[in-house]
Design goal:
two-stranded antiparallel ribbon, mainly beta, elongated
């Protein structure tokens, strides 16, 4: 049975791994194509992943 290795990075919680999208504006250009805007995720800055956080440790006082 193979063992699973934990990922070193995790998917961005805001874009779910799809960091760049093209949004149509509804307008058409003179050649008939749609006008689009390319938008990237602000949280991961277009990478689709975020670094894993260090595990929280419980410290006894």
């Amino acid at each position: 049975m193979p063992e699973n290795t934990p990922a070193r990075v995790r998917l961005c919680p805001d874009c779910d791994g799809f960091p760049t999208v093209a949004i149509t504006t509804g307008q058409t250009n003179s050649d008939g194509t749609r006008t689009t805007l390319t938008v990237i995720c602000r949280t991961c800055e277009g990478t689709g992943t975020v670094p894993r956080r260090a595990a929280a440790r419980e410290v006894a006082a």
